[in-house]
Amino acid sequence: MSDFAITFLGTGTSVGVPMVGCDCETCTSEDPRDNRMRSSIYVETPDVRILVDTGPDLRMQCLREKISHVDAVIFTHAHMDHVVGFDDLRRFSVGADATLDIYALPETMADIQRMFAFAFNGENRYPGYIKPEPHLIEGAFELGDLRITPLPVQHGKVPTIGFLFEREGRKIAAYAADCKTFSEAALEAMAGVETLIIDALRHTPHVTHMNFEEALAVVDRIKPQQTWFTHIADEILHSREDPLLPDGVRIAYDGLKLKL
Fold it and tell me: Which residue of 60, 91, 108, 259 is surrounded by the most CB atoms within 10 Å?
């Protein structure tokens, strides 16, 4: 394993691609890069393995990528396509006394605890059940050899963050799969990051997500070494759109592994 790896578990929008009941060019494409599960990544270093979000496709994503260990889960926000696979985390806290650290904003954690009350009420701590150990994100924090900084973003009406991953002073990667705008503090924190993974839903505007034009404006502002678009809708056909992007900017796809 490289010193830092990111695997794209999913790169799709909230309804996934193909969409149910849609027969557009992308939804009927035979290119596997156009099959997009709900957005999530898996981060690996020699010290720690971190899952970002638990969407409805989590079980199949873990089977596909042969993920057998998670040290911690960090959440961007509490929309259904980012949390509803929460109970599939049970495979990472199998033992009777095994717990799993989860990190989220206070508001996001409150929503998760409400939605999955059975996991937090202390009455169901059996072997094979999910036994979360909650930690509130109120600033930068450490996991293994990584320093993780929350990046405030605007995304609809729920509190939402991205994450900046640093080690030994290197800004290795920033991840923001759901955002319409970045706070000034987030843009300053990300400046010069090596790898940017950013919401770029489609070409046409959207009220809570960046389109390609908006995402490229962020790229121009912070000047990462490489950029990967994620949270992609079915308006985007990979083989048609990927070659049209500027140098250093690419469209991510499910199963892509970056070794940084």
Answer: 108
Helix extents (H) in the chain = 58-65, 80-83, 106-115, 117-120, 184-190, 212-222, 238-241
Q: What is the CATH number of the domain that holds 156?
A: 3.60.15.10
Tokens of 5: 């790896």
Residue 90, C-beta contacts closer than 8 angstroms, at least 6 positions apart: 128, 129, 130
> What's the CA gap between 190 and 236, in Å, rounded?
26
pLDDT, tens digit, for every residue of 56-98? 999 999 999 999 999 999 999 999 999 999 999 999 999 988 9
Tally of domains in the chain: 1
pLDDT for 21-66, tens place per residue?
Answer: 999 999 999 999 999 999 999 999 999 999 999 999 999 999 999 9
